[in-house]
């Protein structure tokens, strides 16, 4: 399976949240906020628009809740195709980080800079004298 372009942040986190088990939309929104420390918030419009598109792509499927008190709630489940798409995206992101690390030297705990200024590499915060 080959995906054509990088996933949006929303698509990425929706697929990631479904990796271990099916969830309802609100559960996906909560889990995304939790695992990103609140940095990423998926609103309901984005959530249901994205899930609709991912269902059409067959990356996820809608299943019925087995909870008798929650029969109307839609649960989403990751398909095998969705798992492959997520794995490809994680591999792509790892390659990007490795490329950045090789240039920036982050694997050594700081930014590489020929001037040796770890606090202000390459004069980023202003013009060097």
From TrEMBL:
Residues that span the membrane, as ranges: none
Which residue ranges does the record annotate as region Disordered? 106-129
State the organism's lineage. Bacteria, Bacillati, Bacillota, Bacilli, Candidatus Onthocola
Write down the species.
Answer: Candidatus Onthocola gallistercoris
Name all Transcription regulator PadR N-terminal domain ranges: 14-86
Question: What's a Pfam family in this record?
Answer: PadR
Record-given protein name:
Helix-turn-helix transcriptional regulator
